[in-house]
Amino acid sequence: MAPTARPRYEDPHLYAEDILELAEKVQRAATVRKSIAKAEVENAVDRITQNAEIRGLLPDVLEILVDTVTTMPCYIDQPSATRIIKGLIPRKKVQDTIAIKIIGCLGNGPRKPSSAIQVALLRWLVMVYDVLENPGTLSRMYSILFNLLDMMSLRSHLCHLLSLITKRSSVKPFRIQALLELKRSIGEEHCLNALIHIYKTYYPDVIIDDPGIFRKGIFSHPDPEWIQNVFTIQQSHAALDLQQPGKSAFKVDTTTEGQASKRRRIELAVIPRVSTYQAVESSVTLEEVQSAQDLVAKLYKLELPNQLAAALDSPVLQRLLLLRPSDTSVDRIDNWLSAKLGDAMRVSSSSSSGTITRFGILLSKILDYTRMSRTLLPSLEEFLRKYIHVWDGKLHRDLILELLSFVPLTSYDDLSSNYLAPVEHLLLKSDETAAVALLRFYTAFLRNWAIQYAEKSPDTEDLTEETNIIRKFVKHVGQVCLQLQHTLKESAIMIDGILSFYESASSLPWDNSLFYIELPPDPLVYWFVFVGDAMALSRICGILSSYKTGFDIAIQRKSNDINVIETGGYPQSHVTHFNGFLMDICNCLWRSRAFMRQGAEPSSQDPAALGCNIPEPVTEQLSQAAQSRGEQLRSLFSFSHSPIFGNLAAECFRSLEEAQGVKKRHSGPVTQPSLKALGTMGGVKMSHLEYRIAVLKDLQEKGLMGMGEFMYNTMISLRTARASLGGATGKGK
Question: What is the pTM of this model?
Answer without folding.
Answer: 0.69
